[in-house]
């Protein structure tokens, strides 16, 4: 039979289920006898040979054998490892954890344990989703013949039946809950729309099941299907006693809630939330709201990503870019007989101070010239740059985006911003250039802490000289929160347990007794409300049916949280003991465990201004566990023993104390406490340390000077000033006032992130973890610029192998998009190349990611070094040909030469390609282009805020409101309407003539706002939560909105987004300032004044460069003389 692979997943033990979409449109379920393998290596050959027959391992495996595999990516030859064929593909990681616990740390090294079974099957069979193939069945095994190629550009996707499911809830309150009944269910396919609204709720549920059986879609589309819609339907089915009859897939499997809860995680300076996936069997469920690659009805990007990364469609639609890129690397690893480490083990090679100074410089950029330009040509290696200037608790952002009560990074951890200052000036300013390539532009009287002859001085910018030393920092490490690990830490500190038939000492009866029950308990203080809430919420999240009861003791502040359900107790203790026995925890788990432990048994020693905990000497093993985690987190500590006297008795006790300033700062930055009270006490301890340095020669810098002398803040570095420019400036400047007047310094540096020239560099220069500084080619002619590191000539690295298809196919899709004859083809190729672009730019950052299976910072550094060389060489070639550089961002150049035409730019492109060896595309010539200044300091350029119109009429827009995902639809539509008007102009002068017409567009939208003609859904703002509701110390709009939703019973997590309407922005009551979208009704008004102000700001962004009279204030002022409510305005 012939068809396309639609879905696959492990079935019963020893089976892989594959669904094939046949050429005649039917769907067939196939079974293949197959089991995955994990691999174990050890330096002890005797123990390795015995492992397969171990009584705890043998029942879980089908067989074992010694095989030759490449164990480490840097190995030159294969090693002998033990292959264990797993009986049940769903239990591979469980088996890996069991093996890990059989011996001391390092005895066994485990591989391929966390590669998803469905992907392993695709790698081994050399298949991919939606591959056109032929399959035959023989003896419960499938024989495959591939009639497709993952390199194909014009592959055929079968016609997939789609059905979108939407549910209307009979809300009892203001927010839809799982306890509310179903009002109606709508199922929409291409052919028909079915609305189920009659009958009892149970009848509606069964009718949904029946309708889906009849429609038999291949793709089930939802909005918020993972987070609400499907979990809601499951709960309603349970309520109506229909759980066994409620299924939505083709396997007719009972639909249940996932066993794992969603997780919050950090990514590129942001906290994001990934909900648990609600996957179906044989039918692909796509939650359009939780996928970066599903662009509305256009699923071509998802299909492309799934094919080349060899991930099932449901997995690919929810995968992060890093996961997708990992899958592509795992496929190539399987072809190289290279094992995938369960936990990354590749370490950074040693570098001396001078090498680090040369190496750790990042990519290179040229400062754009602010203003309007005509006839500028763009040469592009392809563009994706992210600029940020201030390191905040919520990620890196421009100083213009910093708000009061945000927290910014300082040498002593996070510090709140108490005031943001904005001034308009017309005077001289100074631009300082540092040896690491960063530039800082400031007023002449702006102060800096400067090292002069190893002594700190506060100097104003006008006094700065070349050679003065400034301070820079490494980005603070960010770990993924792990609530279960945190709970285990709390249990280690404050927990107790009982099992049936276990002896225990009954303090009340003063005798030993035998337990007749199963019990776990947490003993805490009744005033530790945050701690108690964390324990109960985490237990409830893991065990939805858990019952936690509270025991109190008369006359005591102590309470005990108790769970006595046998199944819960046994499962919790099994997980806990496995966790404690394991020697391999990621840093997120370690930080979370330490946080839970110190929340239970730790506190702030106010005399010594440090974090400390005490334990009875018989519990010294607890401190051993915590000390190990602290070492892994690079947090210094010391332990000791003292005699604790109680009356006439002396009891030996042990203590653990964080040692030194850096340990306290690292703990505050990386770990912290659960409760806000302890977190605030920790902040005050750091502040007390700063205040104690008030008698030093430079009071504000006294503690820092001492810390530097003792090397107590190792994440701080020094760079020299190498350049100083003075020029006239007319515009706005910004500054921040921090809450600690004792140390008013923060890090404000431009940080350059990933970009798309990098994939080409990695591919052409063979840059990968195992190829940079390889031992086999010390005399290689392939060298890293500036560092002279060798790159392997004998073998191609796994990273170049993986990204070859990304670079090659994306280039081809861009060509196909340009030559496409129809809009449909153009959209298809654009969606595919966009998906590949995300993979390409991430491949660079992934080289330096500490959890990447095949990453190493040396390769990351090599890419940056080549980037600096390529861009500088390209610039010199352009200037040699008479072109003037207007702007350059690592992978793009904006150039201008009087009278230059398209052929001149193409000739230049060929010269650059010949001399640098890297392909570069000519994007076009702009009729006009605007490079915008920083919002923080108008007149100071930024990298990623510009817009312009090519001679073809096509607009290119970056960094302004219309490109932001959190901008209300109304503002985006208005701004783009103005830009499309301006794009009609062939010159700057022509654009200025269109300003009156553009102002009419602004007034039209402002009139619609004032007349309240705009539906609320077009006025919605979207913001990500950096914390859980209740954890915010300051009343921002989003924290107030989150609190309102929480009070309505909605559980929110850090990283989730909230959507809201501004209702009374200038109100003194935070709750009145905005309303959550889900609480809006017909009677909810929006704040006309504030929305008009914000609309004016958006319009001013694109109008003020052409006409200085179009500032936000003047645009609002124009409206005072205009009768806005005079006539209706059709805008939406």
Q: What Rg do the Cα atoms give?
A: 31 Å
Give the number of DSSP strands.
Answer: 47
CATH third-level topology of the domain at 483-687: Endonuclease I-creI
Helix content: 25-40%
- Spans with pLDDT under 50 lasting ≥5 residues? 264-272, 381-388, 695-700, 749-756
Overall geometry comes to globular
CATH homologous superfamily (4th level) name of the domain at 483-687: Homing endonucleases
Distance between the first and last residues' Cα: 51 Å
Q: Helix count?
A: 29
* Major sheet description: 8 strands, antiparallel
Structural class: alpha+beta
Average pLDDT metric = 81
Strand content: 25-35%
Class of the domain at 483-687, according to the CATH hierarchy?
Alpha Beta
CATH architecture name of the domain at 483-687: Roll
Structure, explained:
The two termini are 51 Å apart. 33% of the residues lie in helices and 27% in strands. The strands form twelve sheets. Strands 17, 18, 19, 40, 41, 42, 43 and 44 form an eight-stranded antiparallel sheet that branches. The chain has a five-stranded antiparallel sheet with strand order 3-2-1-8-9. With 1132 residues, it is an alpha+beta fold. It is globular. Among the domains are: 38-114, Alpha-Beta Plaits (2-Layer Sandwich); 162-320, Ribonuclease H-like superfamily/Ribonuclease H (Nucleotidyltransferase, domain 5), CATH 3.30.420.10; 387-476 and 715-722 and 729-752, Endonuclease - Pi-scei, Chain A, domain 1 (Beta Complex); 483-687, Endonuclease I-creI (Roll); 995-1126, Topoisomerase I, Chain A, domain 4, CATH 1.10.132.
